[in-house]
Amino acid sequence: MSDDRRTEIRPADTADAAAIAQIHVDSRAATMPYLPPQTRGQDEVTAWVANIVLKTCRVWVAVRDGEVLGYASLEGDMLEDLYLRPDVRRQGIGTRLLDVVREHSPEGLSLYVFQQNTDARAFYERHGFTVVDTNDGSRNMENLPDMTMRWTPDRAH
């Protein structure tokens, strides 16, 4: 367990795009081996982060000693992404990012999670999210069964 007090959560900017893209790719590969192989190169993922994610979402990064360790993106009340570098999982960084996102979603927060992603589902359940629906995968590009989870402040306190 590292000294989490050295980890800063701050708004992301375009200079963070390459680091965010690397975390996105590495985390998905490490934690979701059931996903189809990545067909996009690092430059394409970085362009997606810079031109789509950072322009359509509010994005925060967790930074320690100048290194981006994870990120979260919020579009409206939908948590679009919460990913950490695989080597910094289970240190409280995901919780810190989620706390910032929840501060910016006072009416509540929804997210999609793959049904197979039992670690993420357990993480969100520990933080007060409940399953509100399930889907056969027709609504995601991976075509894998997923579920919608929702957190509302009333249930969390």
UniProtKB/TrEMBL annotation:
Signal peptide interval: none
Ranges for domain N-acetyltransferase: 7-154
Transmembrane residue ranges: none
Keyword Acyltransferase: yes
Keyword line: Acyltransferase, Transferase
Keyword Nucleus: no
CDD domains: NAT_SF (cd04301)
Recorded superkingdom: Bacteria
Pfam families xrefs: Acetyltransf_7 (PF13508)
Matches recorded under PANTHER family: ACETYLTRANSFERASE, AMINOALKYLPHOSPHONATE N-ACETYLTRANSFERASE-RELATED-RELATED
Protein name as annotated: GNAT family N-acetyltransferase
Organism whose genome encodes this protein: Streptomyces macrolidinus
